[in-house]
Amino acid sequence: MVRKSISLIRNALIGTALVGSAIAASNTFAAKPASAQLTPQPWASLGVQDSELTYSVGVRALGFGAELGINNQNAVGVDVLKFINPPFISLISGYGGVGLYEKGNSDGSEFAYSAGVQIRPDGNFFFGAGYHNIRGFNGQIGFKLF
């Protein structure tokens, strides 16, 4: 069971990396400000899974992100995210990601996946919404450090 889970996670990470690389190559000609890519941009998230609150914090830089989350059953884990900007639209970013969560009652690990969108208007704050198979539907608020 553990080997099958590790194999599944490895294949998902490879697939995510390949898709991310293809999209990054196709977005090469879209002009983006360098400071927006290099400066880490943190966020906090509040979600709902099975009528219980879930929490996470994340950070984004260079088109990738990392998120640390916890659900209502004390499952704690980390997700790796890839952000995708549509060509010539810098206000909206879609993302997808995979992660691994340790169950709170020592029952082992669980594979996680997530997807969502972040809206990044002018100013210091940005907002987002997404779905995570372990943490449920969530809303995000973050701030730009530049």
Gyration radius, rounded: 16 Å
Distance between the termini: 45 Å
Beta-strand content: over 45%
Biggest pleated sheet: 8 strands, antiparallel, barrel
* Poorly predicted parts: 4-9, 15-32
Shape: elongated
- By secondary-structure content and strand pairing, the structural class works out as alpha+beta
Number of helices: 2
Order of helices and strands: HHEEEEEEEE
Number of beta-strand segments: 8
Overall pLDDT: 80
Write the layout of secondary structure elements.
Blueprint lengths: L1 H25 L7 H5 L2 E9 L2 E10 L2 E7 L5 E9 L7 E11 L6 E11 L5 E8 L3 E8 L3
Antiparallel strand pairs: 1-2, 1-8, 2-3, 3-4, 4-5, 5-6, 6-7, 7-8
Description:
The longest helix is centred in the N-terminal third of the chain and has 25 residues, at 2-26. The radius of gyration is 16 Å and the shape is elongated. It has helices spanning 2-26, 34-38; strands at residues 41-49, 52-61, 64-70, 76-84, 92-102, 109-119, 125-132, 136-143. The chain is 21% helix and 50% strand. It is built from two helices and eight strands. The termini are far apart.
